[in-house]
């Protein structure tokens, strides 16, 4: 199938192994635009995906107590120069289950397009989920990318999310995540974005530490160059005894780029604690000089610092 | 001709003289200890020598292998064979120890250099040079990276500070190995016991060299003064320091 080949070729060009889509031990779902092009279930993982005409809906269920050893691959993209992709995803990780997801969002040739992901994640008690999403947008900068997610992390569960858009140019990115964290659960949201040209980046991440001893981290790393603009909003609320949260935002700005960071912290319990740190500006002088003392010129040093931050 | 010649160097900031008419020759394959209390100007001299931003000399001259360092930016000084191991080295997100050690010489194998500073290559090479490392670990990695550069002249700013007592002797052996490999070292320290390992020592006080000679003699004088900090003019002995 031509679309699957374009997606897997792009995946391979970015360092991925296209064989994962042939491996019968690895669950996956692949969609080009509003067409489902491939999917595989494995024991413990059920995938119910449908084309709806104006989008794709899917529910992925990890059965109670199952530990899925190999990552589940979600390969989503548009293979033409223009197109729209709307995905509605529901991930259910049942009690005590564990799984990791690798989502590849690939738009290698898109000059004008839109990708929307509306996801709900239900991570039940004691479950463990790692969700890594990496985007590649080509170099046109004509995309509107809108990833939205509502996540509930059940008691004692763990959720680690890593969003990465550091290659190519996006155009507009509007991330909106809300994570509710129950008692003794742990949640970490990490976003790494590189804005170039006249990209406009909006990242809004909210975490509500609702249960006792819930722990949360929102970590945002953004590099902006040329005329790109970015606004990062990290909201951390702690409402129960022993809840601990931290918001950590770092933006490196070059050229005429503009960066803003808005950390909002709210604590409603005297035994909860939330901290935040934000740094926006040029690369750190000491980091730069440390590298220059090893012989790197300012451009090489800056590139290394930025690429390290977004790694 | 000395490898590094500092002549009548003065550095002022906001009208305050941090280094005053400082003259210091450092010979080839020499470990030269620079002793001084807190605030005496030791680290400032390191930054001026290396060409850090905001540390251009007010007057005086510095040469390296006869070449005037004045117009050279920091990275060009490094490419000539000079480098600086910082007292508190910077942390880097996403940069592994292995990558860091290879910064100056991308083709080298970092493992032997990590071993030489007492770090297990297997345990450390893939770790990040970030906040997850202790101060002592970070300093060892800095020293490994400086070793790997094979510099002609290494400025080591308090290389044993933050290193556990049991490992200080090992670190001193590493410092000696610079000389064995043909390099000169400016060993900045406030500990006279560390300075004793040098071939030559100088004492800095209020931005001036007030003694220079055999390490034992300079260390003895420094110790007698019981210096703990410098008020810009003179060392303040421990008994009267506030």
Rg of chain A, rounded, reads: 20 Å
Strand order of the largest sheet of chain A: 2-1-5-7-9-11-13-15-17-19
* End-to-end separation of chain B: 43 Å
Q: Which CATH class of chain B?
A: Alpha Beta
Low-confidence stretches of chain A: none
**What gap, in angstroms, lies between the N and C termini of chain A?**
33 Å
CATH-level-2 architecture of chain B: 3-Layer(aba) Sandwich
Tally of contiguous helical segments of chain A: 3
Spatial strand order of the main sheet of chain B: 6-7-8-3-9-10
Let me know the average pLDDT of chain B.
92
Helix content of chain A: 10-25%
Number of strands of chain B: 12
Q: Largest interface, per-chain counts?
A: A-B, 24 and 22 residues
Mean pLDDT across residues of chain A: 95
Q: How does the major sheet of chain A shape up? A: 10 strands, mixed
Q: What is the CATH superfamily of chain B? A: P-loop containing nucleotide triphosphate hydrolases
Number of strands of chain A: 19
Please indicate the count of domains of chain B.
1
Instruction: Give the DSSP E fraction of chain A (strand runs of 2 or more residues).
Output: over 45%
**Helix-and-strand structural type of chain B:** alpha/beta
| Secondary-structure element order of chain B, N to C | EEEHEEHEHHHHEHEHEEHEE
Describe the protein:
The complex is a heterodimer of chains A (311) and B (242). Chain A has 3 helices and 19 strands. Chain A is mostly beta strands and 311 residues long. Chain A has one domain. In chain A, strands 2-1-5-7-9-11-13-15-17-19 form a 10-stranded mixed sheet. A 9-stranded mixed sheet of chain A has the order 3-4-6-8-10-12-14-16-18, with no helix packed on it. The longest helix of chain A is centred in the N-terminal third of the chain and has 12 residues, at 2-13. The radius of gyration of chain A is 20 Å and the shape is globular. The two termini of chain A are 33 Å apart. The model of chain A has no long low-confidence stretch (mean pLDDT 95). By secondary structure, chain B is α/β, with parallel strands linked by helices. Chain B has one domain: Rossmann fold (3-Layer(aba) Sandwich). A 6-stranded mixed sheet of chain B has the order 6-7-8-3-9-10, with helices on both faces. Chain B has a 4-stranded antiparallel sheet with strand order 2-1-4-5, with helices on one face. In chain B, strands 11-12 form a two-stranded antiparallel sheet. In chain B, strand 11 (227-230) and strand 12 (235-237) form a beta hairpin. Chain B is globular. In chain B, 47% of the residues are buried. The mean pLDDT of chain B is 92. The A-B interface holds A 221, 250, 284-287, 289-298, 301, 304-305, 307-311 and B 50, 52-53, 73-75, 78-79, 83-84, 86, 89-95, 103-104, 145, 149.
